[in-house]
Design goal:
4% strand, globular
Length: 113
Amino acid sequence: MGAPRPDDARGVFGISVAAELAGLGAQTLRLYEARGLLEPARTEGGTRRYSVNDLDRLRRISDLLAAGLNLAGIRMVLDLQDENSELREGDPPTRQSAQAPQPRRRSRRPEQG
């Protein structure tokens, strides 16, 4: 019987280890966080802690950059993927645009003339 597998969502890696595992620089990880592409967990002291899920997301970001997307496009793709995952799991969407009511179409009045 092997050791139990750690929770993939639990932040366990410091920024330098996460950067090395992802093949990126620490400043790049900070930039991605500032642009809203990534939200690592934080300790009580404010130190970033990256999870296995965060590392997977960093690899996805790298793949999308290699495919020619810019950071704004990558954020849109990741947001849509997150929303899709939530829908598949049965959770309600978190994006306000998905919850906003659709505008009513105006009825056309006959022209008088």
